[in-house]
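Lab meeting, action items carried over

1. Structure of the two-component assembly. Owner: GW. Status: complete.
Input record:
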Amino acid sequence: MFQNALRRLCNETLRFQTTVKYVNFLRGVRPLSVSARHLTDVKDALPFDTSLLEFLVCPLSKKQLRYEEKTNELINEELGIAYPIIDGIPNMIPTDARLIKNDPETPVEPA
Amino acid sequence: MAASIRLLARRIVRDAFRTINSSVSVRIVSSSCPSNLSACRCFSDGAADKSTHFGFETVSEGEKAERVYKVFESVAQKYDVMNDAMSLGVHRLWKDMLLHVMNPQPGIRLLDVAGGTGDISLRFLNYVRSQQERVARRTARANQTPSWQEISTSYTTPTEGIEMETEARESRAVVCDINKEMLKVGKQKAESMGVSSGLSWVVGDAEELPFDDDQFDVYTIAFGIRNVTHIDLALQEAVRVLKPGGRFMCLEFSKVTNPLLARLYDAYSFQMIPVLGEVIAGDWKSYQYLVESIRKFPDQETFKQMIEDAGLFSVRYHNLTGGVVALHSGFKL
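Predicted assembly:
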């Protein structure tokens, strides 16, 4: 019984090692395909995954958000706030959101 | 080396005094409190004077969130290493047990709250993918002796089309954490492991989740709920974002049932863990907070009651490692 378990453990670790090597090789290939897929022009290096918008909402009003490519933010039109996206990770903490003024978009932190 | 031992000894003594002082001050404050509190409440913001616990200290609720944030910001880089050191690798078994009990089917959506470095989500994706491979292998083996009918249909329809249809819904894991540093570490770990599709990272508050209602099949929170200021709010949000039929699962440190084991566990927690924290992560206080916060968390039955109050059904718990960790599970019906 233990021999079987040991044999399976050895096989799994070998397989894991080979997949890790394979995956590390693939890592060099992958960035090219990613940049081709994402056509949006973003400021920071990592693109934002827009499929998240399917279920991501504003934590305050629970309404859908709009992705603004130029400033790389998620905008809630109703409340006039913008959530920043840093390194491809959206920051949905209300106190970190930016208030959008009507005319020039001056960054003002809400209370 | 003698100097560092002296330093450690001084720290232990100082911390012992601090805990004695804090418990004394808490008693003094609570005796003189009632009249002051009622006056204060009229004038100041609710969060500023409502107090809660931060380890064995008493702090205001606003302060607790900030201090918890600072704790995890400082331990983020060494978080995984410290977990292995403190639990002697056993935390991996606890997390594997969570996945085993969850038994996710391919195509479901997971929300990992307080997911931090993404341990649960990465395990979830591996589990689901290995299951898919197992199913694919089984069908391949079955197809090795197909009937003449099957062979003729396989000539007419392209095999790629059939495969794409079965994987119509990709499994999806979303890691949500209030702390950006922990998510950054997790994202780097995922990239180094080569996992990129089906995994998303979001900075969000467990008490105010930025997700729509009825969206997730499974909600997990592993070793995170004791750090939340209002546990009942977090539970209510969990119920909101879960689909009907969705499962809530929580791994958390809990009360040890066996008295002998409890004594050993206490000794280990208060003597070894802050020392390990100082040696490996260079942060004694964060790990002191960790072991104190474990003691302040409600026990298995009380937490089960809280989960039921939030509106989940069929709530049960499994004790792991003699009650050191409890796995609570409930369903939204």
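2. GW to write a short summary for the group page. Key points so far: DSSP finds one helix and five strands in chain A. The radius of gyration of chain A is 22 Å.
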